[in-house]
Amino acid sequence: TAVCETAATPARAGIPVFDGTAVAQQIQQTPPMYSAVKVQGKPAYLSARQGKDLNLKPKTISIYQIDILDFSSPLLTLKIHCSKGTYIRSLAHDIGRALGIGAYLDDLVRTQIGAYTLDDSFEISSLIQYLENLDLNNSL
Fold it and tell me: DSSP assignment of 70-127, as one string?
């Protein structure tokens, strides 16, 4: 969920169309200062925390599809299918800028990583219980 800083209604024209019917749209995205991207062998966030100004180089990412799921001002909910290495927080900022308003991420749910989907995942409590049961069965 992205939060728009003004009450302006986002025009569909402000969000690029990525309909998934053609080759993925490739864009240049600059990683955020507080990211794990390596600069001289160290994560950028370490330098950012020390107040150092880094000049991070843009990287090519692919956007396959962006769907608007809901808009209840000021919240805009999107479903985004993108390549690895995409910084969704930066994409929210870029979309806000394209709309002429500020935007930031309020919530983020990763629904798929490679072949693994959210449906394939476990709640932490279920995983702990499973591991405890394994421990009990192995000790008998």
Answer: EEETTEEEEEEEE-TT--HHHHHHHHHHHHTS-EEES-----EETTEEGGG---HHHH
Q: Which of 81, 109, 84, 105 is nearest to 93 (CA)?
A: 105
Beta strand 112-113 pairing with 2-4: unpaired
pTM of the model: 0.70
95-105 per-position pLDDT tens digit: 888 888 888 89
pLDDT category at 117 given cuts 50, 70, 90 is: very high
Give me the torsion for CA of 39, 59, 45, 32, rounded to 10°. 150
What pairs with residue 79 in β-bridges? 67
Q: How far is CA 71 from the centre of its chain?
A: 18
Q: What is the dihedral of CA 123, 128, 134, 135, to 10 degrees?
A: 180
Which pLDDT band, with edges at 50, 70 and 90, does 11 fall under?
very low
Longest alpha-carbon distance in the chain: 65
